[in-house]
Structures are given as C-alpha cells and as structure tokens.
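re: that complex we talked abt at group meeting.

here r the seqs, copy pasted straight from the sheet so there may be weird spacing, ignore it
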Amino acid sequence: MSNRNPLDYSLNKPLVRSFNPLSYIFKDLPLFLGLITLLALGLLMLFSASGQSISMVSRQLVFIILGLFLLLFVSHLKPSSYKNLLMNSYWIGIFLLIYVLINPASGYETSRWIDLGFFSFQPSEIVRLILPLSITAYLFRKDKEPQSKDWVITTFAALFCSYLVYKQPDLGTAIIVFTSGLIPIFLAGLPLLIILVYILIFSLITPLIWSNVLLDYQKERILTLLDPSADPLGSGWNIAQSQTAIGSGGVYGKGYLQGTQSQLDFIPESHSDFIFSVIGEEFGLIGMFFLFILYGFILWRVFKIGLNAQSNFERLISCSLGFIFLLFILINVLMVIGIIPVVGVPLPLVSQGGTSIVVHLVAFGVILSTKKPQL
Amino acid sequence: MQYLNNLKQDEKDIRSLKDRSKIIFIFFLILSFLGIFKILQLTVLDANLYIDDADKNRIIEKPIYPARGLIKLQNGKIIAENIVTKDLFIQKKLIESSMEQLNFLEKVVLDNREINLIALEEYKSEDNFLLLSSLNNQETAKFELNKDSMPNIKLETTLKRYLPQKNLFSHVIGHLGRLTVEEKKFLPRFEYPSSSFLGKVGIEKFYEEELKGLPGMSFIEVDVHGNRVREINRDLPSKPENITLTLDLDLQKIAQAELGNRKGAIVALDPLTGFIKVMVSSPDYNPNILNGSERGTSYESYLQDDAPFFNRAISGSYPPASTIKPFVGLLGLEEGIITQQTQIEDKGYFQLKEDGRRYRGWKEDGHGQVNLNKAIVESSDVYFYELSSKLTIDRISSFLSDFGFGKLTGIDLHNETQSILPTRNWKLGNIGEPWFIGDTINIGIGQGYISSTPMQLLSSITAIANKGRVYKPRIVSSVGSRSFEPEILYEIKIADEDHWNTIEQSMIQVIQSWNGTAHNLYEKDSAVIAGKTGTAQIKSLTDQDLTVREEYEEIRDIIKNRDHALFASYGPVPNPNLAVLVIVENGESGSAVAAPIAKKLIEAYQRIIKNYE
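got the structure back, here u go
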C-alpha cells in the first residue's frame, strides 16, 4: 500500500468513488452475476434432465426468484443485527428435525420429509446451513475469543443435530451435517489439544459404530462403492448408469437434449441428485469443466469477501459458508462419478429442489451482507 | 492504542483463519483431484467403453422373422400359406391372480365355453400362455369391447400356417409344432426363440431350413422401462424359399375320396420322372389345428387307434403279396428255370418233397395246367410256390434287392420305413433260426418275412413299366429357384430284354383276359393298364384240417384280421405316364377294392394331361 508508484493511475481517481447503484443493490456484482449464470445453466439442464418438463422448470424458477429476493434482502442487513437470530435458529433446526421424526410425510420409507401440502422439504437441507451459522454466531456471541467450554458445547450441538438426522435414518446426511458444523468450529480456532482428543475418541468409537450402529443397508451402500460394477442392478445401478452417462459423453458431449442415458431415463434422479451426469453426458468434459470454473469463480468471490470482512464473526461466517458450498459440490460430484457412496446431496444451485435453492441463496445473502462497504 | 491493538488482533485472527482455511482447502483440493482424475478416466480413457454401455442400454435387437415359405403345386395353386390369426395370451405369472378375468373371458367372449389350462406344461419355458388361438371376428369384437375388464389378457396377432385344403395334404405337408426342450438344445436361439414353431413332419420338416428363411434384425431404441422409442435400424430378413410339389391336386382329391373312411394308402408317380402325383394316407388329420390356425380337433377321437398321423404311404409296412409275382416270374425266366411255355399242374396245393408239407393256394381246387402267363393272370400261388422253391432264397433276395426291395427309396420326406427283404443271414440275425425252404415258398407269393412300403413297392413296379430304369421318387419339384431334375435311382439290365415284355403282357392280361384277377376293370377302348392284384394275409391259414374257405370265414369275423387289398399298376401301355399303388387295409380283395381306384386315377390323369396340353 505504501510503495505506490506515483504514476499509478488510481491516484488520479477521486478519493470518494461515485455512487454505483448496481454495486449498492447487488453488493458484489461479479458474485451476483456468477450466481445468475449458474442458476440459468441449472434451469437449462433441468429442462433436459426432467424430460423437457416446462412445469418442473417453472416451479424451479419460482423458487429461484423467491431465493433471489431473500438474497437481496438478507444481503442488506447488518450481520450484527441478525447474530442473535442466527444463534437461536439452531432451535428451529432442532425443532424441525424432531418434528420430522415424529410426524414424517407419508409415502417415503424414511422420515426425511415434512409435507406442507403445497410443498414438501427435508429439514436436513435447512439444518446443514443453519447449523454452521448458529455455531459461528454462538462462538462469537461476545466480542472476544471463544472459551474452552464453547468448543465442546458447539461440538455437541453439531453432534446432536447429526444424531437426529441419523435417526431418520440418513447416515450420509448425518455425516454431512456434522461436517458442516465442524467447519466453522475448526476455522474459528479450535485448539490443537481438543482436536487431538477428538481424533482419539473418533478412532476409538468408529469400529464400534460399524459393528453396532450401522444398519445392513448402510454398510452395503458403503461397500458397493468399492466395486459398483459387481452389482449393476442392485445398489450400484445408480452409479453404473451415471458413470456410463458421463463416460459416454466423452470430451465434447452428445449435445443438448441428445443424451441417451438422460433422455431415456437410464440415469436415476437425473433432475435432482444426478443432474451432474446429465451435464457430463450432454456437454462432455468441456461442459463439466465450465461448471467447475463457474463454481470456482463464485467461491473466489466468496473467500475474497470473507477474508476482507470487518469482524471475526463476519469473516468466519462467509468462509464457513464458502467451504460448506464447496463441500456440497464435492460430495455431489464425487458421488455421481462413483468415488463416494450415494448420499442425498443435490448439486448446489443446479439440482431441482426448492428448499435447496432458497436456502443456498439465503446463505449467499448472508455472505454478501458481510461485504465491507466500499469507501 | 486501543485501535492499534484491535488492528493487531484482527491481523492475527485473519492469519489464523487463512492458515486454517488452507488446511481445509488442501484437504478439499485432494478430493477435487481425485474427482478430476476419475472424470478424465471416464470421459477420455474409457469413453469408448461407456459409449458401448450406453448403446447396450438403449438399443435392443429384436429379430424379425420372415413369413414361412409357401408350398405350391406346379399349377401355382398354394396349398400351404400363412394367415394372420388373433390369439389371446396371458402372462404365466399372472394366471393365478387373474382368475376373475379368466372367468369373465369365458362368460363374455367365449359364451361360457371353458378355457383349457391343462396344456400349461407345454409352455414351460415361455412367459406367455396361449389362452385361445385364432379368434373369429365376433370373438375379437367382444374382446375389444370388454378388454378394460381383462387388463391381464392380451390380444396378439401372429402369422400361422394354414393349409386351405385342410386334410388333403396332411401327411405330405405335415404340420408345425412348438419347439421341444430337446430341440431347443441344439437349435440356434436366434433363429428359434422359445415361442417359435417348426416343422415336425412331412415337407414342413424336410425343408424346414428352406421354408424358414433367416431372421432379420430390428434395432430398437428403448427407454429404461423397455418401452419402444423408435426403430434405429433394420436388417431385413432373408426371404424363405417357396416350395413346389409334384403332386396333382385333382388326383389327390380323387384318391382321398376313393379311400374315404377306409384305412390305406395310395401313391402314384410318373414312371418317367419319379415325380409323385398322388400321396394319400388314410385316416388323415387336419394340420391346421396343430398349426394353431384353426380351432377344433385334428381328427375324430374314434380314429385314435388307427394312427391318423401315420403316413402309411411311406411308413406303413405290408406284405407285397401277389404283386411280387411278376418279379419272381421274371427271375424264373432270367435264370432259365422256366420258359413262357413251362407248365405245372396246380391242384390247389404245393407239396414239399422233403417233408411232405402242403402249401395251399388261394383257390381251393387249383388252376389246373398253369404256365407263367396264366400264373400271373390268375395269380396262381402254387405255380410260384414251385418256382420259388427252385429259385432258392439267395437268388430271389439278390434279384429283388436290385429292384429296391428291402431298401429306402430316398424320397424327400422324413420317416420312410425300410422294407424288409429277408435273406438267410437276416433270418438268423433277426429271428434266430436258420432258413427253411418253406420260408422261400412264402416269399414266392409275397408273404412271410418280406414286407414293403407302398412307396417302395410302387417304385419297384416302375422298373417293369420302364424296362429296368427307375427314377428316384420325388415329391418336391423345386425349392425357390432351384428345380430338381429326374434322377435315376437304378437301372436293371437283364439278359433278355424281351422278358420285360413277357411280364408286362401278363400284367395287361390281368385286366384284359376274361380270367384275369382284375378283369372287372376291363372296358373296351379304354386305356391299357398293366397291373397285378394282391391280397395280403394278415393271419396265415395254418389249420391243415379246415378247407381254405372254412378257415377264411372264421378269420373274416374280425375286421382287423381281414386281408389287405393291393393293386400295383401302371398305364397307359405302351407309354405309361402314371404308376399307381393302392393298398386298402382289411379291404380283402385287391381286384374289387383296390384296382378300380388305380384305374380311375390313371384315366383321370390322362384327362388332366390332355387339358394341360
């Protein structure tokens, strides 16, 4: 900053920038445009993956518009003003998780869905974003370093949430919920000693969990990942089909709406969790890399905002959300290409699903709200 | 100061956040690389593998079966074709849960007729069970109206084999049947899926390969549920070949009508080509029932014991009886044992010098002084007893063998039975006894161990008609564009060609001479026919104390024991164009029963040829 070349053109700029309405409304225009591009691409893929269902695309569009309004609203709030709300939102999450266990929507084998009549959603989709936010808010509820007991309390808060999800039963999501709670705890400065204790406890109870807690189908799910081809019509069928879709798309893809695997319904859940394989089949390696670049750009903006934010709380919130966003992308992609077991994680902002879209957009609103005001 | 402290604290916090972020980021980066490598492997290294997989997923290959080749007659008349039938099917696994629908079907569509579920066993390897074949229009309409009440029952249209002449060609053409478990093992699955039909007997079996053609292939794009989306490509099936038979429709009809309800067989062929003009076996059956193109029973149940599926013309074994006499007479002339003038006295029996045993002729009082001509014309048994006793079995067997006795004719049909021509070794091997002269004497009149199929006997008779040359019997004149030329089966050279005429003249006299056994056929100015009657005994006359007539009356009481009536003939002499063999089981008299049929056929054939020209 100090060794500026006197010839630097920026010196010639006025000290106070002129008021830019776009920057004011959208806080960070590149991030906003990145999100819009991603959402548009998602709608395009959804049209293909849903068997060209206009109604599914319009429904998704309604949620996107709703989500964008919420994003803009939240992005103009002061983080300090909603810190308490975030902290207490934990209880909303707990309420939803318990409610779904007691009163699950009928028609599903597991208790994952809450049915509101016009709309049904999985509380776990909300919880995996609420949890890190509330943990961050709790850790920084006072303007000082978190205390030792705070680390333990937040860890248990995350464990409890994930236990409720596990009871649905949904092991995969339980792990994801726990991980999303752990990310802010770690980023906030979880002491090394506690980390070591955690690792010790974890390595002691993992064998116990495998033999006593996991249900057979959960073990089987994990085991099929080792060789999905061994059982192409059983639990590995989904993976085999999505690998076939991505592989047969090759470098250039088969063309929009030309994917045989997706158009002929060979890819299960192609509009939701497996939409990435539709992208792979129809747009090939190039299409997938374009998607990664788009995600990379969005994440770059998120971390830029996060690291430049004004308080520890704000920095941590944005960075945590950024990592959680990256985590979801990774889990979804690794699942679709067959590296990790099939768990119910949509491709963020692309897969069909109102809750997922709205919750993610609200999260981006929170991130934008932490952006340091430009002078 | 406070502000500076805060600033310092802030920088420390940011550094810590950055460090910790890096740790998570590196962890995620490793995962990302794993993913990227996997994606590169899928899309670049193994792309072709997955392209194949994707195609296998969506493209199913469905064979297209060509319609079976037609069978025609030489005048172009189609006698075996394919018709579209509507059949009702149900998936086997759904039968138990669909009883209500089946009852509904019986009530509404079938007018309370019951569905036969007994045949379920036949459909072992198939998914579908045939409930009802060849629905008529009314039933189809009723089904279509009510099909919503019977969602498990499906109507399918299939091509079925249909013989417009029904029973007329049953034994020649034969019928199709379902693939048996055995056949499934060695037939290519692609050409014969488990629901296919194939030729079981007759022409349908003999020319199965040609009639079937080769299936083509349709490449169909399907979705994950197997629903057809579109046809991508199609390899056309190779067309099966049509087959033309040598048979004559009108003669065939006459022969069938003449046999009527009687058991027996009629075969007729053109001696100059070997092409078969008539082949009828009675009782017959309706192949359409077995082909599934008609409903009902293929034959009346009382015919069960009379083996309606049995093609007597090529598979039936009968004693040639007196029709063998011309051959034995010819041998006598050839060997110089007799001349035309040689006479013996026929007192009604022949007594063996060795053991004094008497062999009785069919005419109790005998034929008196008999030469070869009279022996054939009147069919003297005693003359041939004596002649054969002098000829010995070795010479008789060897000579008859030249004429095709004891051999297959090689006709282009399956299930031809081999006739039996006994020799000393044959008897030793099959009966376990040495040869007795009495056996030879029986052979001399075509009884005893010797047996012939109507086809073989007819083929042998054409040797006399053609003066030694015999053409291989054929029932198919062309397959597709290949047509078959007459093929010489064998050619007999005899020492004195004149002997052919001697025998032929005697056979003509059988009809023309007032004392001929078939003189009842004689009409002045009609076509000259050479023939020989035969009466094949089923039960031998053994009781030495009873007279022939007495013993015979006893046997006649049981119809099954009555003699078979035979007539072997050809005409018109001198240029015979049709040789006919008629055998009527338990018909008793060759002259009264069998001969008129032969005459009718020969005469009808002359008219047909005339019309044709």
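couple things i noticed - The longest helix of chain B spans residues 2-45. The domain at 62-245 of chain B is CATH 3.90.1310.10 (Penicillin-binding protein 2a (Domain 2)).
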